[in-house]
Amino acid sequence: MKAEIHPPYHDVSIECVCGAVWKTRSTSQLAKVDICSNCHPFYTGKQKIMDTEGRIEKFRKKYAHLNKDKK
């Protein structure tokens, strides 16, 4: 590596709002993250797939006449 052209590389602690802390190395001073693998619903298994505002039913009602023509 050439001298004096690369940014400084130092130890940093990354902290999630849930309280989890990681020690790593980075060129930027990272302080906090909003979500991590300890509290993200996908990784914790608490993910819920739901039909918000009846979007699926709204779609089915809108295109119901197309299915009747095929039968």
Describe the overall structure:
This protein is α+β, with helices and mostly antiparallel strands and 71 residues long. It has a single domain, classed as Rhinovirus 14, subunit 4. 27% of the residues lie in helices and 21% in strands. The protein is built from 3 helices and 3 strands. The protein has helices at 41-44, 55-62, 64-70; strands spanning 10-16, 21-26, 32-33. A 3-stranded mixed sheet has the order 2-1-3, with no helix packed on it. The radius of gyration is 24 Å and the shape is elongated. It starts with 9 loop residues before the first strand and ends with a helix.
Task: Itemize the secondary structure elements and their pairings.
Layout: E1 10-16, E2 21-26, E3 32-33, H1 41-44, H2 55-62, H3 64-70
Parallel strand pairs: 1-3
Antiparallel strand pairs: 1-2
